[in-house]
Amino acid sequence: MKKTLAMLLTLVMMLAVCCTASAENYTVGVCQLMVHDSLDQATQGFADALNAQMTEAGHTVDIDIQVAGDANLCSTVVNAFNAKRVNLIMGNATPALLAAANMTTTIPVLGTSVTDYADTFAGDIPANVSGTSDAVPFAEQAQMMIDTLGLVEGDVVGVLYCTNESNSLIQYEAVKALFEEKGIVVKAYTFSETTELQAVTTSMAGEVKAVYIPSDNTVAANDTIVGAICTEKNVPIYTSYGGAICYASLAIDYYQLGYETGMMAADILLSGKAPADIEIKTLTPTVAYNAELCAQLGIEVPAN
C-alpha cells in the first residue's frame, strides 16, 4: 500500500515537472511615446491580444509597458528592454518604433500607430520590423471636409501639427496637395513645444475657415486646448484620429489596431514567424459625426 502510494506521488510529481517544463514565459517590452487616448487604446489592444494567445497556448507573458513621455527618451526605454533581454519590442508611435529599430537588428520589433513604414525607414524597412499602420485615406478625408463644410476655391484650411513628428509632415503634405487641387488654400500652423500650442492655435482660429489635424500625438495629447479655442471662434475641427473635439472624422479603431499588432506578436513568439514575413497591416476607417458639436457649429450631418 505504502509502495503504491509512493509510486503515485512520484508519478504526479513527474507530470507536474513535465507540465512546468512545457510552459514558457516570454518577456515583451512596450515603448509608448506618450499618454493619450489613441495610443493608450492601441497598447491595451496589444496586451489583450497577446495575453489571450499566450494563455490559450499554455504559456505566460510579462508585458513591460513604459511611456517615454518624449521622443528623445524612447531610446532610453528600448535600451533598458535590450538589457533585460526581452523576446520582442513593440513601439507605439513612430519615434518609439524608430528607437527600437535603431537599437537592435536581432530582437523582433513591431510598430503600431505608425502612418508610413516605407517613408519612416526611407524605403528600407529592417528585416526584424513589421507592424500595423494608422494610415487613413487622405483623399476621402479631404473630400469629406469639402462636402460637409461647403468649402470652395479660396477658402483657407489650417493644418496644425508638431514639427517633431515626422508622421504629421507626411500627412500635411498629402492633404495639402489634395486641397490645392480643388483651389482651397492650405496653411501650416506648426509648433515644437507644447507651450507654443495655445498661441499658435489662437492665431490659426482667427485666420481659417476650418482646421485639419493629422494623427499627431502631441496635438492629440493636448487637443482640449485646441478644441476650446476653435469652438469659441466657431471654427470646425476635423481630426485624422477621431476624438471629442472634431465635428466629424473618418478614422480607425486604435484598440483594434493594437489588437492586430498583438496577434502578430503571438505569431512571432509562438509560431516562430519572422517579422519580414508579416505584412504591414492597415485597418478600414469608419465615419463618425459629433451630433452635438455639429449642431453648435451649424453643420448639417448628411442623411447617409
Word description of this protein:
This protein has helices at residues 2-22, 37-56, 74-83, 94-103, 117-120, 138-149, 166-181, 197-205, 217-221, 223-232, 254-271, 291-297, and strands spanning 25-32, 60-67, 88-92, 109-114, 129-133, 156-162, 185-191, 210-213, 237-239, 248-251, 281-282, 286-289. The protein has a six-stranded parallel β-sheet, sandwiched between helices. With 304 residues, it is α/β, with parallel strands linked by helices. α7 links the parallel β6 (156-162) and β7 (185-191). It is elongated, with a radius of gyration of 23 Å. The N and C termini lie far apart (79 Å). Helix content is 47%, strand content 21%. The chain has twelve helices and twelve strands.
**Which residue ranges are poorly predicted, with pLDDT under 50 across at least 5 consecutive positions?**
12-21
Instruction: Bin the strand percentage.
Output: 15-25%
Distance between the termini: 79 Å
Mean pLDDT: 92
